[in-house]
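Margin note from the TA: students keep mixing up input and output lines. Inputs are the sequences; the output is the structure of the whole complex. Example:
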Amino acid sequence: MQNFLIFAILILGFIITFQIARASEFVSVIRGEEKTRKQTNKINAALLLVFLIVGMFGVYWTQHTLGDKILKLGTSASDHGILVDRMIKYTLIATGIVFVGTQTLLFWYSFKYQESDKRTVYYFPHNNKLELLWTVVPAIVLTILIGFGIVYWYRITGAAPANAMQIEVTGSQFKWEFRYPGKDGVFGKKYYKNIDEANDNPLGQIWEDAANHDDIYESGQIHLVVGKPVKLIIGAKDVIHSVGLPHFRLKMDAVPGTPTTLWFTPIKTTKDMIKETGNGKFVYEIACDQMCGAGHTGMRGEIIVETQEEFDQWMASQKPKYVQMKEAAAAPAAPAAAAKDSVAAPAPATADSITAAGAAKKDSTAK
Amino acid sequence: MNKQPQTVSNRAHFVEVYPHNSITMSPIAHTQPEAAEGGSYTHPGNIPAHAKEHFITRYIFSQDHKMISKQFLVTGMIWAMIGGLFSVLFRLQLGFPDERFPVLEILFGHWAAGGMIKPEFYYALTTMHGTVLIFFVLTAGLSGTFANLLIPLQVGARDMASPFMNMLSYWFFFAASVVMLCSLFIQTGPAAGGWTVYPPLSALGSASIGSKAGMDYWIAAMILFVISSLLGGLNYISTILNMRTRGMHMARLPLTIWGLLFTAVLGVLSFPVLLSALVLLLFDRHLGTSFYLSDIYIGGEALSSEGGSALLFQHLFWFLGHPEVYIIILPSMGIVSEVISVNARKPIFGYTAMIASLMAICVLSFLVWAHHMFTTGLNPFVGSVFVLFTLLIAVPSAIKVFNWLTTLWRGSIRFTPAMLFSIGFVSLFISGGLTGIFLGNATIDIHLHDTMFVIAHFHIVMGVSAFFGMFSGIYHWFPKMYGRFMNNTLGFIHFWITLTGAYLIFWPMHYEGFAGMPRRYLDKSSWVSFGQFHRLDAMITVVTIIVFSVQLLFLFNYFYSIYKGRRVRTVNPWRANTLEWTTAIRPGHGNWEDEIPEVYRWPYDYSKDGRDHIPQTEPVTAPENLNDP
């Protein structure tokens, strides 16, 4: 019923608008088309001016109402984010001036130079000085923006410092998984054909590689240390995802088969951010930014930034995947327990051949 | 410069075909109204003069560029309605994620079970919205319509270089439309991987339900579409280069033609790359190749593909994809330049600079594609090169804007609906162009990439503003198409609501982007960072529905005016200089009843030497400054 009513109102609205439009055409014939045209010309010119004024007020009002719902410039939670915010600020200043200037000229000229019998139109086909002016000035402004942009870009994408903490990030439909290299600081080798979720090997780690034995696996959440650079080594299992870190102002795609990296230094702990935003529930979120299938919207990860002590405490409570797996295999008196004791067993028969050939070739995360 | 009045046919070719073309026509003397209704002149080598055209040859398999242009336009309108309706549907989900709309279940069955749009359906809707509007409406519908209508009429040709190829171009587009339409009705639904169809998502049926049969339909439709676009583009280029009437040298072409020429060049050079990308994708899908696939574990199974590169597709895709946005915007720029000049009664300012900037945009547009890929792990040096070229393209864009502004300055502006839409175009182009300076800068893009900021940016600069150019062109040349005017009052209502609505919809989206909200999220309730905009999203949805209904008003105006609109009573209702207004009110096939007029001057002699306008066909009798570059 309600739908029907809405539909009926819409139709009615159409009919009324249409009848008004038709009537106005008849009226214009009766009153003289030229006279009507001149009148509507004035109305439209005035409306353009009104649009400019209301529009500019609207720009202000949008800023007024939405301004505190965005990530404020200068409040970035990473060192690289400060550069991004600064670049946005410079660009905002340059484009803001051009925006107000050109829009004002456009609507003001439209209003001011509306058709009038009194005005003789100025025949002005070209002027090379003017053309030169608005070629050179934008070019200079853009060169400045390009200069800052490229310098910052190199700083953001440059090599990570040697002391950076390394974390491997793997996206898959529709979750984030993470790996810390453990005490040895080296990621063990992995191969995608070794991925075996049933046997607790979600990343395809090659257990023969001893470097894997202390690697810490995490799902959904990572911990970072404030003030300590972190380098993410990013990959994906199935389709392209993207590690979006809005509060750090950064983002990097996770591409299956092509590892990417991203490094930054978090400068505010989660607790700092809770205080700063006044939001008790605040948490750094990892948003998947590359459309990855039906569950894209829910592909959420969390980052906890904490002090070194808190981090060490947390890290101490983590068990490497390898240890977990061995314990799981040993604890229940399963018939296969003895067999599973051997490292190579979870990936039967072919494991050797794959690791031999594959690991050498497809070792994507080895340092 | 030939100053002698014309007595001989300018091309022997036409003398043979039009033996009775020997009457000397004073170029502006074609004032017999309606004389050529249903014209008897036909294209050389086609149907003999005076032969009666059948319904089929006239309206369906027509080789008349004017009819083909209408076919493109009407097909484009149907697609625009479908694509627009899709956006209304997914905006319902975005604006009211918790609301149930039982009507959706009635219409879409299990895709909207319980009146809630399922994620798979949501992504199918966004994907088809993008594909349809970018390719079928703003490429085929826009260039197809105006290149066909205006090129022969404005360069002074009887038809396209190859009318048959032109007809094929439409029918390939039609075939593409049919295939794409069919994909909406198959069991697994249409393609749902985004209009950019990045593999592996689009390559693997197990990754998304839309990547099953729907993706094959999508690829098939796009291959047909590329063929259509190439046939059309080659024809437009050859017509413009070879079939200009006497005196119409390149520097006397209206800017519409320049815009369409560069559009066609871009299309011819870039669409084949998309074609090859899609063929490789098809191989990956069905023939077991690994062009784009590597190291994939999906659905509990490791695929054997190794060594492919998912980024290869992105490079190939954006090599078309970026020129594509200029394919969309350049015809609108041409139309707007022409309409502003005519209605400001002033020559377009900086004609040569306008052409040079079009050319600069055309060249640069091939050197900026990787700015869509700053966050894919691109080599930082390559990234910086693309930052450079991307921001440089703002220079020719700025030149164009300032030239339009100067054209308005000290003019005498008539606000026809076409003129209003052109002014709206410039406003939107400024707004959207400036946000491009944010996204073109890799340093900012690494934050704003794939957020709602991008949605706001490209909808304003390429979506809505290209539509404004298209509306402007339709209102302006409707009298040429049908011999009647569209209703002005409806046009004004259409303009004001659309302009206001466009800003209301897209301006606040920048803020969502500044909050880091990713695009293609259908429900933000599980997120701490993005939940604060639900009222804004609801407002945007309501405005979207209003703006969409106003487009229905436009369609109604269009079709009503074809039959009932105010009749055009003078040959040149806008008092314009270009050649199309020297034909009869409703030109027949062949365009000019008599000889093709000769051109003596550029098309922008408005308000010169105290005269309101001087048509291109008016010979130069006394010494005057001709503005020939």
